[in-house]
Amino acid sequence: MKRAVTVGILFGAIAAADGASAAEDCTRSFVQDKVLAPATSSSTTVSVTCNLKLEPHDVVTRRIILEGSAASGVTVDCNNATINGGEGTINEGKDMIEIRSRKYSVTPLPGSPDQTTNRWERPQDVTVKHCNIVGSMRIYGMAKNGEGDDLQESSLCTHHIRRARNNAPRRIFLDDLKITGTGVRTPFYIAPGVTYVTLENSEITGESESVGVYLDTESGFNTLRNNYFHTTSRKDYAWGIYTRKREEMAIDNSTGNKIISNRFSSLEGGGIYLYRNCGEGGTIRHGTPSENQIIDNVFYYKDYSGANPAVYLGSRGEGRGYCGDDEFSKSDAQAICSRLGASVFQGGSRADNRSYARENVVMGNQIYKRTGADKVRTRDDGSNEPNYIAHNDTVTTEKVRLAGCYVSSVYGTGFLRHGETTSVFKDTSGRPVCSPYAVTCNNNEVSYTSSSACPLRTVSFDCQVTGNNNGCEKTAYCPTGTRAIGAVAACNLEYGSVSDSELQSVKGNVMKVVRASDSLSDGICSFGTWNIHGGEKELSEDWGRESVRLGCEEHDSNGGDCHIRGTLYCR
């Protein structure tokens, strides 16, 4: 462990009550004397604990700070005014709006060995809207980023995710912001532990040495919707000879976020990258970049023709130089964790530096020019599966549409377009079944209603031959007016028939050989475009056809025997 541990720090208590009361409006004298007064070297910030409304022509050069429970329930309405931290200003290179927890110390009880007990008081239910911000904006709790001392020490112990989130701002509503990066800090930063931030109808632009938007470790459940992200990322090295370009959005060990109906450009460094930043700064990453939904976004590649993808799952591997920085002294860790009422944590990035980007949904996105792995890529290191990737289209013209929904229990990919309704769900084996409820998608919002109609139709198929090397072939037809949505098939490629129990053992959308030919290559089972000699195969057909060709074949000196049997599902 590179950083010395201060054993007197205790994390976790929250002084503020969970509910936020309505704030009073700021007085005009406060606005004139504190907010609009020019920033100076001795007065660079203004703390806002009242509802602030500006005029469109106002220019604020002081940094606006919304801190602790005193800022809970506060609304800042810039009314299209400018918060200016641009080039040549006192606050150039600084975060011009900070929504942050207040750190304070508590005197320990008599007889306690602790010298200091640190706690955090968070703001919540804060609204910021209609602002033109030149510079950057950050929301943070225990640390400004994943390398803060307090966060690093907390990460040594169990229950770290809970501590980080309990001590960070939550339920922050951001609407109609334009944040123009000035080439230094990340324009929009959601720091460790921050949860339930909503950013919508906004634009993140300008320049950054890093990414345009960063969602840091142990944050989660944030929604970024209907925004335009196009920050130019560059940092010159070696006298300007080399220019680094980064992705537009980084999801670094952040979970459960929804990235919905946004537009991305300036994508030379890539679009949205999901990863776990191993041991950078000595902080153990406990969680994983998982269960995020990236749905119905537009990724616009104009001139760039390189390989950086629109979405990269597990973009960082194990080879980074700081991955070992989260090693620590066991005695130091035990001293800290005992004061937390916790145990020393043994897992996370300290045990395994891979990203574990799992259970992420990447569906319904429109991607200009990109094909194949240039659209959505997954690092193949054994940690980044499963993820759910489907319906991402290469386009030359954008289709304007409302957002779809992902419902894991819905049969098929689980994806519903806006306005689509279904009552067909998956059973425990993955086969389609009708439900007494129908689910409807309305612009990424899901609703359920009772349903008595069942649109699902089943067609049994059976094809068998004995003593004939020519095999057996048939076509299974859906009823008139319906089309295939899936199937199960079981094959016996030696003597005998497929039994009821053998067919029942096959999972949804799978073809399985329940008995292979004595000479494996002499038997083949076919369904649509798929052929197998043994084992099983997922039937990832392009469903929607009215019929499917199927068959089996087995060669023997006295004539082959085979049997294919199954069910075609139609709707």
Task: Describe this protein's structure.
The protein is mainly beta. It folds into three domains: 28-390; 402-450; 457-570. It has six helices and 47 strands. It has a 19-stranded parallel beta sheet that branches. Strands 1-4-7-11-13-16-22-25-28-31 form a ten-stranded parallel beta sheet, with no helix packed on it. Strands 39-47-41-42-45 form a five-stranded mixed beta sheet, with no helix packed on it. The radius of gyration is 29 Å and the shape is elongated. The relative contact order is 0.08.
Overview in brief:
By secondary structure, this protein is mainly β. 7% of the residues lie in helices and 38% in strands. The protein has six helices and 47 strands.
- Poorly predicted sequence stretches spanning 5 or more consecutive residues: 1-17
Task: State the separation between the terminal residues, measured CA to CA.
Answer: 59 Å
> How much helicity do the residues have?
under 10%
Strand content: 35-45%
What would you report as the Rg, rounded to the nearest angstrom? 29 Å
Continuous helix count: 6
Main sheet record: 19 strands, parallel
What's the count of strands?
Answer: 47
Q: Could you say how many structural domains there are in total?
A: 3
Category by helix and strand content: mainly beta
Give the overall form: elongated
* Mean pLDDT across every amino acid position: 92
SSE order and pairing:
Elements: H1 28-35, E1 45-47, E2 52-53, E3 59-60, E4 63-67, E5 75-77, E6 82-84, E7 95-100, E8 102-106, E9 117-121, E10 124-134, E11 136-140, H2 149-154, H3 160-166, E12 170-182, E13 188-190, E14 195-200, E15 203-208, E16 213-215, E17 223-225, E18 228-229, E19 232-233, E20 235-237, E21 242-244, E22 249-252, E23 258-260, E24 263-264, E25 272-275, E26 293-295, E27 298-299, E28 311-313, H4 330-340, H5 348-351, E29 361-363, E30 366-368, E31 376-378, E32 388-390, E33 393-395, E34 405-406, E35 415-416, E36 421-426, E37 432-442, E38 445-450, E39 457-465, E40 472-477, E41 484-492, H6 500-504, E42 510-515, E43 523-527, E44 530-532, E45 536-538, E46 547-554, E47 562-570
